Amino acid sequence: MSNDFISKDETDIPRRRRCAKCQAWDSESLFIAQIRFTTIAQRNNQFPRQYLGRVQACVGDWIVYYEPRKVVATRGYFAVAKIAQVIPDPKASGMYLALIEPNTYLDFINAVPFSGPDGVIERGVLNEEGRLSGRAQAAVRPISVADFNRIVSIGLDERELELPRLDETVATFSGDGFEEAAQAPFMFEQERDRVMRLSSRIVRNRLFRRLVLQAYDKRCAITGLKLINGGGRAEVDAAHIRPVEANGPDILANGIALSGTAHWMFDRGLISLSDELEILISRQANDAESIQGLLNKTGKAIVPSRPFERPHPHFLQWHRENCFKH
Protein backbone atom coordinates (compact mmCIF):
# COMPACT_ATOMS: atom_id res chain seq x y z
CA MET A 1 0.00 0.00 0.00
CA SER A 2 1.40 3.39 -0.92
CA ASN A 3 1.28 6.48 1.24
CA ASP A 4 2.14 10.10 0.63
CA PHE A 5 4.07 12.33 2.97
CA ILE A 6 4.44 16.06 3.40
CA SER A 7 7.42 17.83 4.97
CA LYS A 8 7.84 21.20 6.67
CA ASP A 9 10.89 23.37 7.39
CA GLU A 10 11.03 24.08 11.12
CA THR A 11 13.89 26.61 11.36
CA ASP A 12 13.49 30.28 12.32
CA ILE A 13 15.28 31.40 9.15
CA PRO A 14 13.78 29.46 6.22
CA ARG A 15 16.15 27.33 4.17
CA ARG A 16 15.82 28.11 0.48
CA ARG A 17 15.51 25.02 -1.66
CA ARG A 18 14.62 24.08 -5.18
CA CYS A 19 11.26 22.37 -5.59
CA ALA A 20 11.94 19.28 -7.70
CA LYS A 21 8.49 19.26 -9.22
CA CYS A 22 7.80 22.87 -10.15
CA GLN A 23 11.45 23.90 -10.72
CA ALA A 24 10.99 27.06 -8.65
CA TRP A 25 12.63 28.30 -5.47
CA ASP A 26 10.45 28.02 -2.37
CA SER A 27 11.42 29.24 1.12
CA GLU A 28 9.25 26.96 3.20
CA SER A 29 7.86 23.83 1.58
CA LEU A 30 5.89 20.70 2.11
CA PHE A 31 6.37 17.71 -0.10
CA ILE A 32 4.27 14.67 -0.96
CA ALA A 33 5.84 11.47 -2.27
CA GLN A 34 4.58 8.00 -3.13
CA ILE A 35 6.32 5.66 -0.65
CA ARG A 36 5.51 2.69 1.53
CA PHE A 37 6.39 1.56 5.03
CA THR A 38 9.07 -1.12 5.20
CA THR A 39 10.03 -1.33 8.87
CA ILE A 40 7.16 -0.42 11.13
CA ALA A 41 9.43 -0.24 14.17
CA GLN A 42 11.22 2.83 12.84
CA ARG A 43 8.60 3.92 10.30
CA ASN A 44 11.22 3.89 7.56
CA ASN A 45 9.84 4.45 4.09
CA GLN A 46 10.90 2.86 0.83
CA PHE A 47 10.76 4.66 -2.51
CA PRO A 48 12.27 4.28 -6.02
CA ARG A 49 15.22 6.22 -7.43
CA GLN A 50 13.01 8.55 -9.48
CA TYR A 51 11.89 10.32 -6.27
CA LEU A 52 15.36 10.53 -4.69
CA GLY A 53 15.99 14.23 -5.21
CA ARG A 54 12.52 15.19 -4.08
CA VAL A 55 12.63 13.11 -0.91
CA GLN A 56 16.14 14.31 -0.07
CA ALA A 57 14.67 17.81 0.00
CA CYS A 58 12.58 16.66 2.98
CA VAL A 59 15.54 15.72 5.21
CA GLY A 60 15.36 17.60 8.50
CA ASP A 61 11.72 18.51 7.94
CA TRP A 62 8.48 17.48 9.59
CA ILE A 63 6.23 15.56 7.24
CA VAL A 64 2.55 14.67 7.05
CA TYR A 65 1.56 11.23 5.79
CA TYR A 66 -1.29 10.93 3.34
CA GLU A 67 -3.11 7.87 2.01
CA PRO A 68 -4.41 8.51 -1.54
CA ARG A 69 -8.13 8.67 -2.22
CA LYS A 70 -7.91 5.64 -4.50
CA VAL A 71 -7.09 3.45 -1.47
CA VAL A 72 -10.18 1.66 -0.15
CA ALA A 73 -11.26 3.16 3.21
CA THR A 74 -8.46 5.71 2.93
CA ARG A 75 -7.33 7.42 6.11
CA GLY A 76 -6.51 10.64 4.26
CA TYR A 77 -3.83 12.63 6.09
CA PHE A 78 -3.05 10.45 9.09
CA ALA A 79 0.29 11.14 10.80
CA VAL A 80 3.31 13.40 11.24
CA ALA A 81 7.01 12.60 11.58
CA LYS A 82 10.43 14.04 10.87
CA ILE A 83 12.84 12.65 8.27
CA ALA A 84 16.37 12.19 9.59
CA GLN A 85 18.18 10.95 6.48
CA VAL A 86 17.86 9.13 3.17
CA ILE A 87 19.95 6.04 2.39
CA PRO A 88 20.06 3.34 -0.30
CA ASP A 89 18.00 0.28 0.60
CA PRO A 90 20.62 -2.45 1.19
CA LYS A 91 18.06 -5.14 0.35
CA ALA A 92 16.62 -3.73 -2.88
CA SER A 93 18.61 -2.38 -5.83
CA GLY A 94 17.43 0.99 -7.08
CA MET A 95 15.35 1.61 -3.96
CA TYR A 96 15.94 4.02 -1.08
CA LEU A 97 14.81 4.42 2.53
CA ALA A 98 13.71 7.63 4.21
CA LEU A 99 14.72 7.11 7.84
CA ILE A 100 12.44 8.69 10.45
CA GLU A 101 13.98 10.49 13.43
CA PRO A 102 13.29 8.42 16.58
CA ASN A 103 10.32 9.46 18.71
CA THR A 104 8.91 11.88 16.12
CA TYR A 105 6.24 9.75 14.42
CA LEU A 106 2.77 10.61 15.71
CA ASP A 107 -0.57 9.31 14.45
CA PHE A 108 -3.44 11.77 14.20
CA ILE A 109 -6.34 11.21 16.59
CA ASN A 110 -8.80 12.50 13.97
CA ALA A 111 -9.19 11.53 10.35
CA VAL A 112 -8.26 14.36 7.98
CA PRO A 113 -9.95 13.78 4.61
CA PHE A 114 -8.80 15.28 1.33
CA SER A 115 -11.95 17.43 1.29
CA GLY A 116 -14.04 18.95 4.08
CA PRO A 117 -17.18 21.11 4.34
CA ASP A 118 -15.23 24.12 3.04
CA GLY A 119 -13.54 22.28 0.19
CA VAL A 120 -10.13 20.63 -0.08
CA ILE A 121 -7.95 20.76 3.04
CA GLU A 122 -4.76 21.17 1.03
CA ARG A 123 -5.53 24.45 -0.73
CA GLY A 124 -2.32 24.37 -2.74
CA VAL A 125 -3.73 21.77 -5.13
CA LEU A 126 -6.20 24.33 -6.49
CA ASN A 127 -5.53 26.49 -9.53
CA GLU A 128 -6.34 30.19 -9.85
CA GLU A 129 -9.93 29.31 -10.75
CA GLY A 130 -10.38 27.30 -7.58
CA ARG A 131 -10.41 23.93 -9.35
CA LEU A 132 -8.18 20.91 -8.76
CA SER A 133 -4.97 21.23 -10.71
CA GLY A 134 -2.49 18.64 -11.88
CA ARG A 135 -0.54 19.18 -8.65
CA ALA A 136 -3.10 17.01 -6.86
CA GLN A 137 -1.85 14.01 -8.83
CA ALA A 138 1.87 14.71 -8.43
CA ALA A 139 3.83 12.04 -6.63
CA VAL A 140 5.97 14.74 -5.00
CA ARG A 141 4.65 18.27 -4.60
CA PRO A 142 5.32 21.36 -2.47
CA ILE A 143 2.45 22.77 -0.42
CA SER A 144 2.22 25.76 1.87
CA VAL A 145 2.99 26.06 5.56
CA ALA A 146 -0.62 27.17 6.01
CA ASP A 147 -1.80 23.83 4.60
CA PHE A 148 0.56 21.98 6.93
CA ASN A 149 -0.80 23.83 9.96
CA ARG A 150 -4.40 23.31 8.86
CA ILE A 151 -3.90 19.55 8.46
CA VAL A 152 -2.08 19.16 11.80
CA SER A 153 -4.64 21.28 13.66
CA ILE A 154 -7.51 19.13 12.42
CA GLY A 155 -5.66 15.86 12.96
CA LEU A 156 -4.71 16.69 16.55
CA ASP A 157 -7.81 18.64 17.59
CA GLU A 158 -9.20 17.51 20.97
CA ARG A 159 -12.50 19.35 21.19
CA GLU A 160 -14.00 16.41 23.10
CA LEU A 161 -11.37 15.71 25.70
CA GLU A 162 -10.53 12.20 26.82
CA LEU A 163 -10.42 12.58 30.60
CA PRO A 164 -6.98 11.62 31.93
CA ARG A 165 -6.17 9.26 34.74
CA LEU A 166 -5.77 11.11 38.03
CA ASP A 167 -1.97 11.09 37.79
CA GLU A 168 -1.79 12.48 34.24
CA THR A 169 -1.06 16.04 33.13
CA VAL A 170 -3.46 17.65 30.68
CA ALA A 171 -2.07 19.24 27.50
CA THR A 172 -4.35 19.71 24.55
CA PHE A 173 -4.50 20.87 20.94
CA SER A 174 -7.30 22.94 19.47
CA GLY A 175 -8.19 23.74 15.92
CA ASP A 176 -6.96 27.32 16.43
CA GLY A 177 -3.63 26.35 18.01
CA PHE A 178 -2.50 25.17 21.40
CA GLU A 179 -4.77 26.50 24.10
CA GLU A 180 -2.20 26.40 26.86
CA ALA A 181 0.12 28.85 25.05
CA ALA A 182 -0.20 32.62 24.77
CA GLN A 183 -0.49 34.06 21.28
CA ALA A 184 2.94 34.80 19.84
CA PRO A 185 3.46 38.25 18.27
CA PHE A 186 5.12 36.92 15.10
CA MET A 187 4.07 34.08 12.80
CA PHE A 188 7.48 32.34 12.79
CA GLU A 189 7.32 32.15 16.61
CA GLN A 190 3.91 30.48 16.40
CA GLU A 191 5.17 27.94 13.88
CA ARG A 192 8.30 27.18 15.92
CA ASP A 193 6.14 26.71 19.02
CA ARG A 194 3.87 24.32 17.14
CA VAL A 195 6.80 22.19 16.01
CA MET A 196 8.29 22.14 19.51
CA ARG A 197 4.99 20.92 20.92
CA LEU A 198 4.91 18.05 18.42
CA SER A 199 8.01 16.81 20.27
CA SER A 200 6.66 17.45 23.79
CA ARG A 201 6.50 14.26 25.83
CA ILE A 202 3.48 15.53 27.78
CA VAL A 203 1.58 16.28 24.59
CA ARG A 204 2.61 13.03 22.91
CA ASN A 205 1.56 10.96 25.93
CA ARG A 206 -1.79 12.71 25.93
CA LEU A 207 -2.40 12.08 22.24
CA PHE A 208 -1.15 8.50 22.45
CA ARG A 209 -3.66 7.77 25.23
CA ARG A 210 -6.48 9.28 23.18
CA LEU A 211 -5.49 7.30 20.10
CA VAL A 212 -5.23 3.95 21.89
CA LEU A 213 -8.43 4.36 23.90
CA GLN A 214 -10.34 5.27 20.74
CA ALA A 215 -9.06 2.19 18.91
CA TYR A 216 -9.82 -0.18 21.82
CA ASP A 217 -13.14 1.45 22.74
CA LYS A 218 -11.74 2.06 26.26
CA ARG A 219 -11.70 -1.71 26.88
CA CYS A 220 -8.82 -3.65 28.43
CA ALA A 221 -7.38 -6.03 25.84
CA ILE A 222 -6.50 -8.60 28.50
CA THR A 223 -9.53 -8.70 30.81
CA GLY A 224 -12.14 -7.44 28.37
CA LEU A 225 -13.45 -5.01 30.99
CA LYS A 226 -14.66 -1.54 30.06
CA LEU A 227 -14.84 0.48 33.25
CA ILE A 228 -15.88 4.15 33.33
CA ASN A 229 -15.91 5.84 36.72
CA GLY A 230 -18.53 8.26 38.00
CA GLY A 231 -16.65 11.23 36.60
CA GLY A 232 -16.65 9.79 33.09
CA ARG A 233 -13.01 8.76 33.23
CA ALA A 234 -12.00 5.48 31.57
CA GLU A 235 -10.13 3.28 34.05
CA VAL A 236 -7.78 1.89 31.44
CA ASP A 237 -4.23 2.79 30.45
CA ALA A 238 -2.67 3.31 27.04
CA ALA A 239 0.43 1.12 27.40
CA HIS A 240 3.48 1.10 25.15
CA ILE A 241 4.42 -2.47 24.25
CA ARG A 242 8.02 -1.41 23.76
CA PRO A 243 8.50 1.45 26.26
CA VAL A 244 9.52 4.93 25.21
CA GLU A 245 12.57 4.53 27.46
CA ALA A 246 13.60 1.59 25.23
CA ASN A 247 13.09 3.63 22.05
CA GLY A 248 9.52 2.48 21.58
CA PRO A 249 7.62 4.80 19.20
CA ASP A 250 4.31 6.55 19.92
CA ILE A 251 2.40 4.64 17.26
CA LEU A 252 -0.81 2.68 17.57
CA ALA A 253 0.90 -0.57 16.53
CA ASN A 254 3.11 -0.19 19.63
CA GLY A 255 0.16 0.46 21.92
CA ILE A 256 -2.41 -1.60 23.80
CA ALA A 257 -5.23 -0.71 26.20
CA LEU A 258 -4.76 -2.32 29.62
CA SER A 259 -6.43 -2.03 33.00
CA GLY A 260 -4.22 -0.95 35.88
CA THR A 261 -3.57 -4.51 37.09
CA ALA A 262 -2.98 -5.87 33.59
CA HIS A 263 -0.63 -2.98 32.83
CA TRP A 264 1.37 -3.66 35.99
CA MET A 265 1.73 -7.35 35.09
CA PHE A 266 2.58 -6.57 31.46
CA ASP A 267 5.35 -4.11 32.39
CA ARG A 268 6.83 -6.60 34.86
CA GLY A 269 6.85 -9.47 32.41
CA LEU A 270 4.24 -11.59 34.18
CA ILE A 271 2.10 -11.63 31.05
CA SER A 272 2.81 -11.11 27.36
CA LEU A 273 1.31 -11.84 23.94
CA SER A 274 2.23 -14.23 21.15
CA ASP A 275 2.26 -13.02 17.56
CA GLU A 276 -1.20 -14.60 17.28
CA LEU A 277 -2.28 -12.46 20.28
CA GLU A 278 -2.58 -15.42 22.67
CA ILE A 279 -2.12 -14.27 26.27
CA LEU A 280 1.01 -15.77 27.83
CA ILE A 281 1.46 -16.18 31.60
CA SER A 282 4.95 -16.31 33.05
CA ARG A 283 6.07 -19.50 34.77
CA GLN A 284 7.56 -17.25 37.44
CA ALA A 285 4.18 -15.81 38.46
CA ASN A 286 3.48 -16.84 42.05
CA ASP A 287 -0.28 -17.15 41.46
CA ALA A 288 -0.75 -18.15 37.84
CA GLU A 289 -4.21 -19.56 38.55
CA SER A 290 -5.52 -16.21 39.77
CA ILE A 291 -3.97 -14.46 36.78
CA GLN A 292 -5.71 -16.94 34.52
CA GLY A 293 -8.98 -15.99 36.17
CA LEU A 294 -8.48 -12.35 35.20
CA LEU A 295 -8.20 -13.10 31.49
CA ASN A 296 -11.11 -12.75 29.11
CA LYS A 297 -12.72 -16.06 28.13
CA THR A 298 -11.08 -16.26 24.71
CA GLY A 299 -7.57 -16.39 26.12
CA LYS A 300 -6.53 -13.94 23.40
CA ALA A 301 -6.12 -10.18 23.48
CA ILE A 302 -9.17 -8.23 22.36
CA VAL A 303 -7.85 -5.90 19.69
CA PRO A 304 -9.26 -3.49 17.07
CA SER A 305 -10.72 -4.93 13.88
CA ARG A 306 -8.53 -2.89 11.52
CA PRO A 307 -5.13 -4.58 11.04
CA PHE A 308 -3.05 -1.38 11.20
CA GLU A 309 -4.45 -0.64 14.67
CA ARG A 310 -3.44 -3.98 16.19
CA PRO A 311 -0.19 -4.71 18.08
CA HIS A 312 2.56 -5.37 15.56
CA PRO A 313 4.53 -8.65 15.87
CA HIS A 314 7.79 -6.68 15.90
CA PHE A 315 6.91 -5.02 19.20
CA LEU A 316 5.35 -8.16 20.67
CA GLN A 317 8.57 -10.03 19.93
CA TRP A 318 10.57 -7.30 21.65
CA HIS A 319 8.37 -7.60 24.74
CA ARG A 320 8.74 -11.38 24.89
CA GLU A 321 12.50 -11.22 24.46
CA ASN A 322 13.24 -8.26 26.73
CA CYS A 323 10.49 -8.14 29.33
CA PHE A 324 8.55 -11.39 29.60
CA LYS A 325 9.76 -13.78 32.30
CA HIS A 326 9.60 -17.16 30.59
Radius of gyration from the alpha-carbon trace, in angstroms: 21 Å
Unreliable residue stretches: 9-42, 163-190
Shape: globular
Largest sheet: 7 strands, antiparallel
Strand content: 15-25%
* Helix fraction bin: 10-25%
How many H/I helices? 7
The total of beta strands comes to: 17
Gap between N and C termini, in Å? 36 Å
Instruction: Specify the structural class.
Output: alpha+beta
How many structural domains are formed by the residues?
2
The secondary-structure element order is EEEEEEHEEEEEEEHHHEEHEEHH
Quickly list its features.
7 helices; 326 residues; two-stranded antiparallel sheet; 2 domains; globular; alpha+beta; seven-stranded antiparallel beta sheet
Describe the structure.
The chain has helices at residues 52-56, 145-155, 187-198, 201-215, 260-267, 288-294, 313-322, and strands spanning 4-8, 17-18, 25-26, 30-31, 36-39, 44-48, 62-66, 77-88, 95-100, 106-112, 115-116, 119-120, 142-143, 237-240, 255-258, 271-273, 279-281. It has 326 residues and is an alpha+beta fold. The strands form six sheets. Strands 1, 5, 6, 7, 8, 9 and 10 form a seven-stranded antiparallel beta sheet that branches. It has a two-stranded antiparallel sheet with strand order 2-3. A hairpin with a 4-residue loop joins strand 5 (36-39) and strand 6. The two termini are 36 Å apart.
